[in-house]
């Protein structure tokens, strides 16, 4: 039987550099708030305080259980260097049953 995919999500978070991205990723894994965190180089364009900005950043794709989102948001908010960090949860609408089961066993 397919697990309820609404129990799982991906949380997106951008970071200014590898140092911050790796610190957050390792901490999320060590605290069992995430089963996997992928780090990807990205180029972001956005408006901030009336200015158009372009930055090289690192995007974290945090694979986790939806029930842990509030703890992840709190952890990132307390440990992120940005005044307003990007923290977005995208619910899973499907997924390989064995992969979702692995997330379930790894996250607390």
Keyword list:
108 residues, 4 strands, four-stranded antiparallel beta sheet, 37% strand, alpha+beta, 3 helices, Alpha-Beta Plaits
Task: Give an overview in words.
The protein has a single domain, classed as Alpha-Beta Plaits (2-Layer Sandwich). The chain contains three helices and four strands, in the order E-H-E-E-H-E-H. The chain has helices at 18-30, 69-79, 97-106; strands spanning 8-15, 36-48, 51-65, 88-91. It has a four-stranded antiparallel sheet. A hairpin with a 2-residue loop joins strand 2 and strand 3. The two termini are 22 Å apart. The mean pLDDT is 95.
Topology of this protein?
Layout: E1 8-15, H1 18-30, E2 36-48, E3 51-65, H2 69-79, E4 88-91, H3 97-106
Antiparallel strand pairs: 1-3, 1-4, 2-3
Offer a quick outline of the entry.
With 108 residues, this protein is an alpha+beta fold.
How many extended strands?
4
Indicate the proportion of strand residues: 35-45%
Major sheet strand order? 2-3-1-4
Low-confidence stretches: none
Oligomer: single chain
Helix/strand order, N-terminal first: EHEEHEH
N- to C-terminal separation?
22 Å
Gross geometry: elongated
């Amino acid at each position: 039987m397919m697990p309820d995919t609404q129990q799982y999500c991906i949380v997106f978070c951008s970071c200014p550099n590898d140092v911050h991205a790796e610190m957050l990723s390792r901490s999320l894994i060590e605290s069992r708030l995430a089963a996997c965190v992928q780090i990807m180089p990205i180029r972001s364009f956005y408006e901030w305080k009336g200015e158009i900005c372009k930055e090289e950043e690192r995007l974290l794709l945090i694979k986790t259980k939806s029930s842990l989102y509030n703890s992840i948001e709190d952890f990132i908010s307390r440990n992120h260097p940005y005044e307003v960090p990007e923290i977005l949860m995208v619910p899973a609408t499907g997924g390989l049953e064995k992969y979702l089961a692995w997330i379930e066993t790894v996250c607390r």
